Amino acid sequence: MSVSADLTRLIFGLFLGIILPRIPLLFFTRVLNMERELVPHPDPIPIGVPLVQRLLLMRRVHAMCWLIAILAMGIGLLILRSSPEPFAVGLVAGVAWFVLSRMVPMQMGRGFGIIPLSLIQEINNLRKPQTGCCNQQFLQWEVRAIRCKNCRDIALNLPRPDLGRIRSDGRLIGTLRTLLMDGHSAFPPIEDSVVSQGVELLGKVTEEE
Ligand SMILES: [Zn+2]
Description:
It is a single chain. This protein is 54% helix and 5% strand. It is mostly helical and 209 residues long. It has one domain. It has a four-stranded antiparallel sheet with strand order 1-2-3-4, with no helix packed on it. A hairpin with a 4-residue loop joins strand 2 and strand 3. Helix 1 runs parallel beside helix 4, helix 2 runs antiparallel to helix 3 and helix 2 packs antiparallel against helix 6. 19% of the residues are buried. The structure holds zinc ion (ZN). Zinc ion binds next to loops.
């Protein structure tokens, strides 16, 4: 068999291995309209029961992705046991990338996965916070963190993951984002960003002078 035919099958397998496990995520966040209870994208989402329910639903969608990944990995490995098929090598490599992208936590100490159960618990607790930041406390999940709408106090410094709302930038870009980011936010938490670190450093320098 020619090298180019092998290469084509390898790339096809790789492509399939990358796309297949993400199909539930693409279907539920980009094809189905899950707009019902939440405010439209990109508005901040108020902390409340609809948000907690959506987080639980997204967790189930991510679990479905895992199920397909395990199936695809199994099929790839089964084929590889009988013959060194380039398509299966690509498939296994593609799924392995999915597994790696899910196993590496975005933030240490926050649990594994895009939406860990501990995070949902934490957000559920924010519905009735122990401490109030101001007398008109209204917490909402903005792009970069959960903040109070009135006093801008940060209740939870965590960028908002993809919650399955139809994105304001359209379905095509939304689909690409899902494939590349896996539902993670493209933004770092507030103090982690290079810009805010720079601003802080500048503040220290001017204080010293
Ligand atoms: Zn406040």
